[in-house]
Amino acid sequence: ELKVEQNPLFLSMQEGKNYTIYCNYSTTSDRLYWYRQDPGKSLESLFVLLSNGAVKQEGRLMASLDTKARLSTLHITAAVHDLSATYFCAVILYGNKLVFGAGTILRVKS
Amino acid sequence: ETGVTQTPRHLVMGMTNKKSLKCEQHLGHNAMYWYKQSAKKPLELMFVYSLEERVENNSVPSRFSPECPNSSHLFLHLHTLQPEDSALYLCASSQAFSGIYEQYFGPGTRLTVT
After folding, report:
1. Which of A41, A61, B83, B107 has its CA 20 to 30 A from that of B38?
2. Which residues of B touch A31 (CB under 8 A)?
3. Chain A residues with CB inside 8 Å of B2's CB?
4. Distance from C-alpha of B50 to C-alpha of A95, rounded to nearest angstrom
5. CA of B107 vs chain A CAs: smallest distance (Å)
6. A–B CB contacts, 8 A cutoff, strictly below
7. Do B100 and A31 touch (CB under 8 A)?
């Protein structure tokens, strides 16, 4: 059974600070996805990481994938309030099946 | 309409009612999904349809019945639900066999069972 663990589950950070969210998974997979969800809204795709060593950046967010360590990170640089949301990682189990982590609730304080 | 749409956005139903949730994708995808999102629980995959054939039924109770009449439409028929079925139901679509499998989500239906 594939398990996907995110930590921390809750993160309160000051504007302007940097932080990293971690996503560990238990079985081999070479595809990992990061999503963002605002309260009461649906999931928005942020990054698709398709190979070992993949790194993608969009604005203040950067995601990376280490398939050997079964670890992905989502790094936040100089956080701003607009980044407050819940962030999910998800891993392909087989075929079309995604297994999601529990989500990290991010609150950026002014 | 663009992306993935879902109707209704909110639904309140009694335990003896029968209702249906509708999902439509405008992305030309060939796989569609139903997920359940409850408070304090990870997103749970319920059903997967690929090329209009159900390929996954994740031990979902029979009071939830999916239907996929074509690659653009997906329904979730609900009957004799329980209060614990109250949740956000999300529909998603993707391009199967693309090697990428990125899923695009609809806005969800907030279901309350009274």
Report:
1. A61
2. 100-101
3. none
4. 10
5. 5
6. 57
7. yes
Residues B45-69 pLDDT 10s: 999 998 878 877 778 999 999 999 9
Q: What's the whole-number average pLDDT of chain A? A: 93
- The single-letter DSSP state of residue A3 is -
Phi, psi of A60 (to 5 degrees): -90, 5
Structure tokens at B39: 């408070």
Residues contacting residue A42 through CB under 8 Å, at least 6 positions apart? B90, B105, B106, B107, B108
Q: Are the C-beta atoms of B14 and B79 separated by less than 8 Å?
A: no
Separation CA A88–CA A63 (nearest Å): 12
Residue B85: helix, strand or coil by DSSP? Answer: helix
| Assigned token pair, A97 | 């099946």
User: How far is B108 from A69, CA to CA, in rounded Å?
Assistant: 34
* Tens digits of residue pLDDT in B20-31: 999 999 999 999
User: Residue A4's closest CA among A73, A101, A104, A105?
Assistant: A101
Cα–Cα dist B101/B30, whole Å: 11
Q: Give the separation between CA B14 and CA B19, rounded to whole angstroms.
A: 10
CA gap A64, A61 in Å, rounded: 10
